Amino acid sequence: MTGVDVNSYLVKSPNHIFAIYSNGREKLKAAFKFLKDGLLNNEAILLITDELSKEDAITRMEKEYPEFDILNLLEKGVITILSTAQWYFINDSFDGDRTQLKWKKAVEESLLNNFLITNPSKKGKVNGLRAFGDTKSFFNKDRSLRSNEKNTFSFVDKLVEYECSLEKRFPFPLNVICAYEEEDVVQLNNGQLKSLMEHHGVFQKDNIKELVYPLQNSHIILLYENQQELDNAFITYINEGLVQGQLCVFASVLLHNNDYLTNISSKIRNFEENVQNENLILVDMANYYIQAMMDNLQEFDKLKSELMEKVKNDKKREDKHIRLVSDCNEFLLKNKHFEECINLEKWWHQKYFEGSSVCHYSISLINQFPFNYYLFKLFHSDDIVIDSRGNFLFDYVKNSEHQSKLVSYMIKRMDVSNVELKEQ
Amino acid sequence: MSNPTQDPKNYLFGGRKIERYLKLTNSSETVRKDINILVYETDSDIQYLYQQYMNIISPHVSCTIVADIEKLISGNDNSIINKFNYSQKSNFDTIIIDIKVDNFEVIKIAKELLQSISRQKIVFTTTVDLHIIKNEMIRQGLSSSVVILRKPFSFSDLLAVISPTKGKFDKLKLTDHVLASYNSMQEELMDAVDFIKKGIESDELNLFLIRNDMDVKKTVLMLESKGLSNIDSLLDNQSLILIKNKDWYIPDGKVDVPRIMNQWQDLVNQSIQLKKNGLRAFCMMDCFFENGFSTELVDYECNLPSQFQIPVIPVCAYRQIDLDYLAENDKKKLIECHNHMIICE
Questions:
Q1: Does B227 touch chain A if contact means CB atoms closer than 8 Å?
Q2: Is residue B171 part of a domain?
Q3: What is the pLDDT of residue A88?
Q4: What's the domain range around B67?
Q5: What are the C-alpha distances in Å from B248 to residues A240, A349, B236, B254, B270?
Q6: A residues 348-377 closer than 8 Å to B (CB)
């Protein structure tokens, strides 16, 4: 995530941001970019990290921010560089309440600062604080704890507790990135990760993104509360695909039901035209469903190949991503063909798909007996499990492998958002 | 947004349009397809609708429509479904029977069909109030396991109720680790018999771990009555071994995982020495709960792989109340360490 992108996030989204970086290098690169954009926006900046010394940080700022007099800004308090120990810890212990108060005080001080940033484009008073808080040390400290100490105290547990005492927005002009590295995030348990998601504005700018900009070869499991939510979600998925010039496939066992398709078609953008131009393909899944009940997925293979071939040979179509939404899996599950549904879910991951696919399940169905017994067999560790608004659902993470893959996916997601935001 | 000006069904991929041409399936022409359905329906309009619906799925489904009760009883072959015995197999995966106020006797026929072929899937269709139908079913002693489809029904409603005949153990392989749960002893014993029968057909060594409070002699008689007619010879030639589960799992009052694992390995070796194809075991698991070893049970199960490298297929048969007793995380662990599940409602 680059500073420019985070800036875009900050305009409309919560200002307590949870960011995950693939390594320390990427993290620092993002930190310097994010903070520079703060200076350009007349914000005071605060860098909290142990990954490099204050001197090294100053040297890098001088190199990367040639338009600013770094030493002068440091002296005036517009730039602050602290170690984790200086900000979070006192005598190696951590007090979340105290840290919260420090944030408020830091913002107040920055607002009192009368220094005018020598920014040719935006002259004016400091109008807030932008901070980049590196959490690496919490994980390092836990790693250095002896095993018997770990049982009684964990810096990471305290960090999560502190993070969860903060909300997505601060009641004062503060924009903070809480920076985590991928290798550390995978150490968190599902509950911790879920809590961090809930208390940060992760992907808040566009959290329906999984349906708007699905990644290549991603299999999305959409869990919905009611039919309207479901309809809205897959209509978004299809309509966005049509706008982006992608081939969209609506595969359903319900196409023969009176009114069903009429209702859906009224919500799909230029339905008739898109069907006639073969931008939108309807697939009657009734026979596929029967084949799936008979454990024969050859027809599914054939369908996948046919669709990919079609897109490949379509010289006019620049975007080769195929979007496929299917209700066959849910129909199998609803009718208690459990093993067959599990097999079909596995099938999605067996061969590469030049596009994305969405399968959906009703939350109330999968939470009731006996469906709940099959829940974790149903999901694959490569599945992206979201709700109809595009939020990741960590309650349905299958195991540590699934969690780890989801984190990697989220990092990929950030890269996609960079492209998207730069284009805006 | 625009509305389609034509019938949206005409847009289906691959030119699979709805055919208007309909042909009444002659009962004598029934060809074995993936799924075979028998429909008892007297209303010609509804018969027409069935044919329309069946046309959509005709590559895989064959449908025989009959309008008189005699044909419902005999299907398309007098020798098939009206002879009531335990080895009976139906010609049809799903039998759909229409019930009208004036023909409640079809409930009796359905009951007789289920008595002869207990796993026959039967679906009632009706315009009659469901309470009336259910009360009549209760009055005639028919279980509520019959699905009732309220008229008018859509194509997908019909699609939802048809399915191929599937035995619970048909898809299992001789290396699977199966988790089963039961709400009734009756169903558990029925499954145990079906499972053991398959083992005998496949020339495997069969182990049946019975509850501690079950009498071995009475169990033998019960198995015999449920279809294991040659049980004495099976026991004599060691094709079937009956052991109380407590004696197998916790003979000395503790769950000794390495000892239990060794017992499994020894029995697999024994099956090989007997030139059997492998070991099949139906294991009632209640003894762990009865003796306060639920934590140890989860630990033991997690020590077993979800799929075995040796020729053994255990069905770990739980009472649903015991599974309900487990913490969610333990339940999840149990599910993860089995590669196949049979959950009875």
A1: no
A2: no
A3: 82
A4: 8-161
A5: 60, 41, 20, 11, 16
A6: 369-370, 373-374, 376-377
* Chain B residues within an 8 Å CB radius of A399: 336
- pLDDT score recorded for residue A183: 79
The residue type found at B46 is: I
Chain A to chain B Cβ contacts (< 8 Å): 116
Nearest to B60 among A258, A272, A291 (CB): A291
φ, ψ at A373 (rounded to 5°): -70, -25
- Residue A247 scores a pLDDT above 90: yes
Same domain, B46 and B18: yes
Whether residues B229 and B307 share a domain: the answer is: yes
Q: What is the pLDDT of residue B119?
A: 79
Q: Which of A22, A277, A372 minimizes the C-alpha distance to B332?
A: A372
* B149 and A CB contact within 8 Å: no
Tokens encoding B19: 């055919």
B96 forms beta bridges with B39, B123
Please report, to the nearest 10 degrees, the dihedral formed by the alpha carbons of residues A377, A383, A389, A390 taken in order: 160
In tens digits, chain B (345 residues) has pLDDT values of: 333 334 444 444 433 332 222 222 333 344 456 899 999 999 999 999 999 899 899 888 999 898 877 766 655 444 444 443 444 567 889 999 999 988 888 898 888 888 878 778 999 999 999 899 999 999 988 876 789 999 999 999 999 999 998 888 988 999 999 999 999 998 899 899 999 999 999 999 999 999 998 999 999 998 888 888 889 999 998 899 999 999 999 999 999 999 999 999 999 999 999 999 999 999 999 999 999 999 999 999 999 999 998 899 999 999 999 999 999 889 989 999 999 999 987
Portions of chain A given CATH number 3.40.50.300: 209-390
And the tokens for A12?
């409309």
Global confidence as pTM = 0.75
B343 to chain A nearest CA, in Å?
Answer: 7
Higher pLDDT, B177 or A107: B177
Counting beta carbons within 10 angstroms of the beta carbon of residue B272, is it exposed (0 to 12), middle (13 to 18) or buried (19 or more)?
A: middle
- Asked if the structure places residue B67 within a domain, the reply is yes
The CATH superfamily label for domain A209-390 reads: P-loop containing nucleotide triphosphate hydrolases (3.40.50.300)
CATH number at residue B227: 3.40.50.300
Q: Does B104 map to a domain?
A: yes
Decide if B164 touches A, using CB distance below 8 A. Answer: yes
Examine residue B167 and state whether it is found in any structural domain, yes or no. Answer: no
Which ipTM was obtained for this model? 0.84
Q: Are B148 and B126 in contact (CB under 8 A)?
A: yes
Chain A residues with CB-CB distance to B32 below 8 A: none
CB-CB contact of A196 with A164 (8 Å): yes
Q: pLDDT tens digits, residue range A368-412?
A: 999 999 988 899 888 999 988 887 887 788 777 887 787 777 766
Q: Quick one: B157 and B201 in the same domain?
A: no
Q: Which chain A residue has its CA at the smallest distance from B17's CA? A: A284
Question: Contact, B65 vs B122, CB < 8 A?
Answer: no
Residues in B 170-199 with any Cβ partner in A closer than 8 A = 171, 181
**Partner-chain contact B1 A270, CB within 8 Å:** yes
d(CA B180, CA B338): 10
Is residue B254 domain-shared with residue B333, that is, in the same domain?
Answer: yes
* Amino acid type, B343: I
Q: Is A285 on the interface with B (CB under 8 A)?
A: no
The angle at the Cα of A359, spanning B306 to A354, to the nearest 5 degrees, equals 95
Please answer whether residues B241 and B271 qualify as being in contact, where contact means their C-beta atoms are separated by less than 8 angstroms. Answer: no
- Residue A409 CB-half CA count within 13 A: 22
Q: For the domain with range A3-206, which CATH number is right: 3.40.30, 3.20.20, 3.40.50, 1.10.287? A: 3.40.50
